């Protein structure tokens, strides 16, 4: 997963920002691949790792979580209609200015913010939250400038997917049938001619 | 007489609470109430911290806290959570032996397979 440093000349400063503030000795560098992962489930795993709750030496007053690198942030998935219906809302402070932006637009604008918000909102709101935020490095693509560190990929725990509901299954079957017959009958007039014939 | 005792207890307080008797008296009363309450809370907090540590330690070996304790109860191992958390921090091999004992007694966990298939026993 080590990549050339050339694509990173733009935001290599942002990627390495604040590294000096973290005491890096003894911490592992865990790499999460967000491609095809569900947003919330991935974020909760990242939150446990960043807090250090997977180590038996956890202490709530000191910050000992591992550095987390998240790759392929733009390929993160959500179920249901959240892509168009999930809104990020914020109020600017002026009367009547409640702004909102949908997941789709946010992914187009800045895909790292989606995962960063998800993880930050899962961390406890205390004084260690900012330090934990500094340990999270999220990248939209597959490359990162940390190739020379000892990296460890993180295996996500296996997921039980519930079986598909009847209505969704019927829609899936219809879509599959349409995909099979699609290239052969493109126009409506031909279908009408077939139906009458 | 009483004032000296109050000021002695008010060492380290913020602002006028360490110097002026009226404020110091209130703050010291509150501090003594908090310390009464927290002597009882400390026992709860320490136990939950031990449980968190044991949970982290057993999950490294693929067993979660509930199944681990159930297995230990079945084997009648009466180590308390304090000792178990110390073992999980400082004696990893002994702790792994305990996790194996518990897993033999109560195999209630799915084995985490790397290829993604999960079977809940």
UniProtKB/TrEMBL annotation, chain A:
It comes from the Eukaryota. Keywords: Ribonucleoprotein, Ribosomal protein. Residues 173-197 are annotated as: Disordered. GO terms for molecular function: mRNA binding; structural constituent of ribosome. GO terms for biological process: negative regulation of translation; translation. Residues 187-197 have a biased composition (Basic and acidic residues). Signal peptide: none annotated. One of its GO terms (cellular component) is mitochondrial large ribosomal subunit. NCBIfam families: rplM_bact (TIGR01066). HAMAP family: Ribosomal_uL13. Belongs to the universal ribosomal protein uL13 family. This is Ribosomal protein L13.
From TrEMBL, chain B:
Keywords: Ribonucleoprotein, Ribosomal protein, RNA-binding, rRNA-binding. Pfam families: Ribosomal_L20 (PF00453). It comes from the Eukaryota. InterPro entries: Ribosomal_bL20, Ribosomal_protein_bL20_C. GO terms for molecular function: rRNA binding; structural constituent of ribosome. One of its GO terms (biological process) is translation. One of its GO terms (cellular component) is ribosome. Binds directly to 23S ribosomal RNA and is necessary for the in vitro assembly process of the 50S ribosomal subunit. It is not involved in the protein synthesizing functions of that subunit. This is 50S ribosomal protein L20. It comes from Canna indica.
